[in-house]
Amino acid sequence: MHSGGHTRRMLLKGVSAGALLSALSPAAARIRMTGSARIEALIAGMSLAEKAGQLSIYSDPVRAYGAVVNPGVVTQGLTEIKARIARGEMVGLFNGVGVALGRALQKVAVEQSRTGIPLIFAADVIHGCRTIFPIPLGEAASFDLDLAERTARAAALEASALGVHWTFAPMVDVARDERWGRVAEGAGEDPWLGEMFARARVRGFQGTDLRDPTRVLACPKHFAAYGAVQGGMEYNTADISDTTLWQVHLPPFKAAFGAGALSTMASFNDIAGVPSTANHHLLTEILRDEWGFKGVVVSDYTSEQEVVAHGYAADERDAVVKSLTAGCDISMQSGLYYKHLPELVQSGQVPIAVVDRAVRRVLEVKQALGLFENPYRSLDPARQVNDIRRPETVALAREAGRKSVVLLRNEGNLLPLAKTATIALIGPAISDRADLPGPWAVFPDVASHVTIEEGFRAAMGSHGALHVARGCDYEAPIEGGIASAVAAAMACDVVVLVAGESAGMSGEAQARVDIGIPPAQLALAEAIAATGKPLVVVLRHGRALALTGAVRNAPAILASWFLGSETGHALADLVFGDAAPQGRLPVSFPQSSGQEPFYYNHRSTGRPQTSDEKDYKARYREVTNAPLYPFGHGLTYAAVVYGETMAKGPLVRDGRMIVWATVANTGNRPCHEVAQLYLHARVASVTQPVRVLRGIRHLDLAPGQVVTVSFDVTEADLAYVHQDLRSFADPGLFDVWIAPSAQGGTSATFAMTD
Ligand code: BGC
User: Fold this and answer.
1) Is the pLDDT score of 700 beyond 80?
2) Are residues 649 and 577 in the same domain?
3) E strands of 60-105, at which residues?
4) Are both 657 and 557 inside the same structural domain?
5) Are residue 587 and residue 677 in the same domain, yes or no?
6) Are residues 529 and 413 in the same domain?
7) Are 645 and 589 within one domain?
8) Is the residue at 645 inside a domain?
9) Distance from residue 300's CA to the centre of ligand 1 (Å)
10) 3-class SS at 367?
11) I want to staple 133 with a disulfide (CB 3.0 to 4.6 A). Which of 128, 276, 421, 615 is the partner?
12) CA dist., res. 249 & res. 485, Å (int)
């Protein structure tokens, strides 16, 4: 019955594709067909339960690998999962699995299920897999797109060595409110930088051929406007204008799809009252009809079920109808598609064509990954050993760590420190190995993480002396903690105080009303500062912080985010000057939490405060509008001076215009400077931000070296989203800056003409 001869005979007789599938062994069907013929044959022969199963993904209940990162919902045992796979009723699993279980389950799928459709294994590989890189926000501080591509590529190598085919990354939400905990996962507050990082990360994950078993499918998320949740509160509503949606929140997604990303995740939030997961305008009209997206849309961990709580669907069945019809192809974790779709089709509430459309997209993605030809791709026991924590991957984590740190302040050139110094290293994080990876590491190899203390000791060797004291816990004092920290400080030449958030204080569901450093750590900082010892503060954080008191006033401050596996080495490289800081802030540091959302590319308003005048101006009573540290800010160990910005206008539409400025290293150390191009439209039919970033240049400058840095400006750089949502530039006057940050530099003015 299943012989090849039989198959050929049936084909010759013109038997329909569906009948052929029913008659074939799954393997035979898989092997003999390719492309859309295979997919249509499968769809034609699939039962409703098999189709609903291909639209339902669940987290791995075994958890041989992986931390728990989600609430427990619909927990099924391995036996039940295997039985469902054998019945061909499961698309795949996420966040766990590993090679051994992955192979076993894949064998069941391809050999026992009637359809033989291989499983897809997914995971949240957000900033590294076993080797952890800096959190995405930290890495964005490198302003280094090549670095982001290389770390995504290395993460794909490790993830695919653990059996992962599909990462739920990159997170490309533009986040302008630092109260939102998920700022940590993205590229910060700037849409243009967001586009650049989105592209780089997709390229790094996917490469040029998705069938490459060392690559993974990317899933830009969360579509869309999740970064705009009101008050920065997780899962909250986003009520934004269409122009803001199109100009700020959609561009990084469009860039990611342009780079080839073949999946996306619908966001938890609603936009102006319509939950993204059931938003036809978003998931179908924009994503597919307008942008031509050919991939698959997955819900975000029960988000299709949550449209009921949103008040957009009457019950679970209504939620399924609305979500699937809107264009959400796969249900994550709720099990609702699996539970209700067969009956909804039978009762005529969901046309079978809508189900088939979603199944087709799923099968096309599996096909693009080469899973039909090679179901055991990325499930290679040898790779599970050889491709994990390769020396070059660990070295990359150290490099990425170094490049992600921002030197905010360095009064009197306190940094770098001499390795011969006697140093007090103080703070709750200094020896905390488990906290190093930050908020979004599912598979970290914690034992191999290098703590800050270990990094310092390795760098100092036998030269100087290191006294360590924890001082307090992240959010609570410890008995005698301050006294022993003060004693350590008194015994030393200089103090390095590591202060800020624990990993658990940022990331998903960690919105904060006060983005300051917890009071227990502030009390410690005050006591240390009172010793009068020179104080270096190393901040750890998943967002911009509102700094106060002794931390704010410390003469040297490094913003270090969460740097991952090589934290200790990377920090020591910078603190002792074996490497120079080069990071730039991808988020503005406010004066105070109450200013949030606080971002550099805001609109002017009708009463901007342009001088010290206080009355009837757009301002707060208590603080200045100027950021404590602006977007783009970052010092080096040298001194960098920018000349005047020069522009050779006018720019003729369709033409290009050069702008340039000199950049000089007037210090006595080499440095790496990141020159930034900003633009501003003086008049527009939708008012435009006071500045927008449109270019970056990385410059290596020797002491005394002066270079001229230039950028080409074209109409595309001046384009903005008009009320009819078309994007183009209007003729008129523009300001341009080549600057070290969103606050610095001098401007030139030019005109664009038709
Ligand atoms: C998060 C997603 C994540 C998913 C699966 C959700 O809670 O919002 O970013 O991919 O869980 O872990």
Assistant:
1) yes
2) no
3) 92-94
4) no
5) no
6) yes
7) no
8) yes
9) 6
10) helix
11) 128
12) 45
584 lies in the same domain as 449? yes
Residues with CB under 6 Å of ligand 1 are 69-70, 95, 124, 168, 221, 300-301, 508
CA 386 to chain centroid, in Å, comes to 27
How far is it between the farthest Cα atoms of the chain? 92
Pick the closest to residue 160 from 200, 218, 115, 203 (CA basis). 218
Residue 8 clears pLDDT 50, i.e. is over it: no
What per-residue string of b and e applies to 99-138 under the rule 16 or more CB within 10 Å gives b? bebbbebbebbbeebbbbbbbbbbbbbbbbbbbbbbbbbb
Is the Cβ–Cβ distance between 686 and 720 less than 8 Å? Answer: yes
d(CA 403, CA 411): 21
SS3 449: coil
Average pLDDT on 154-163 reads 98
Residue 130 falls inside a structural domain: no
Give burial (CB, 10 Å; 0-12/13-18/19+) of 8: exposed
Q: Phi/psi of residue 264, each to 5°?
A: -150, 165
Domain boundary among 571, 595, 619: 595
Do 700 and 708 meet the contact criterion of CB atoms below 8 Å apart? no
**pLDDT tier at 325 (50, 70, 90 boundaries)?**
very high
The CATH number given to whatever domain includes residue 705 is: 2.60.40.10
CA 585 to chain CA centroid, Å, is 15
Q: What is the mean pLDDT of residues 554-576?
A: 98
How many domains does one find in the chain? Answer: 3
Identity of residue 593: S
C-alpha to C-alpha distances, 49 to 89, 355, 559, 606, nearest whole angstrom: 6, 11, 52, 59
How large is the average pLDDT for residues 447-464? 97
315 is known as an active-site residue: no
**Which segment of 28-32, 194-198, 355-359, 392-396 scores lowest on mean pLDDT?**
28-32
Please state the atom number of ligand 1 nearest to the C-alpha of residue 168.
10
Going by alpha carbons, the residue nearest to atom 8 of ligand 1 is 300
- 610 pLDDT band, cuts 50/70/90, is confident
Structural domain containing residue 22: 1-45
Q: Model's pTM, two decimal places?
A: 0.96
Per-residue model confidence as pLDDT tens digits over 179-227:
999 999 999 999 999 999 999 999 999 999 999 999 999 999 999 999 9
Map tokens 């102006």 to a residue. 272
Q: What angle do CA 584, 708, 706 make, to 5 degrees?
A: 85
pLDDT of residue 16: 52
Q: What is the pLDDT of residue 118?
A: 98
Same domain for 536 and 684, yes or no, is no
Identify the pLDDT of residue 1: 29
Measured in Å, how far apart are the chain's first and last C-alpha atoms?
72
Q: Which two tokens stand for residue 367?
A: 């096909």
What number of H helices and E strands is found in the chain?
A: 25, 27
Q: Using the structure block, give the residue that is written with the tokens 């982001």.
A: 148
Are residues 588 and 495 both part of a single domain?
yes
Give the 3-state DSSP-derived string for 163-232, with helices as H, strands as E and coil as C: CCCEECCCECCCCCCCCCHHHHHCCCCCHHHHHHHHHHHHHHHHCCCCCCCCCCECCCEEECCHHHCHHH
Residue 499's alpha-carbon distances to 136, 137, 358, 545, in angstroms, are: 20, 18, 48, 11
Position 601 in a domain: no
Q: What distance in angstroms lies between residue 198's CA and the mean position of ligand 1's atoms?
A: 18
In angstroms, the CA 94 to CA 332 distance is 9
Q: Using the mean position of ligand 1's atoms as its centre, give its distance from the Cα of residue 442 in Å.
A: 11
Structural domain contains residue 336:
no
The residue whose CB lies within 8 Å of the most ligand 1 atoms, and thus the one to mutate among 265, 300, 330, is 300
Taking the C-alpha atoms of residue 427 and residue 487, their distance in angstroms, rounded to an integer, is: 14
Q: Which of 300, 329, 432, 435 is catalytic?
A: 300
CATH number at residue 472: 3.40.50.1700
> Mutual orientation of helices 316-326 and 336-346 as an angle, nearest 10°?
90
- C-alpha distance from residue 401 to each of 110, 154, 193, 503 (Å): 42, 14, 19, 16
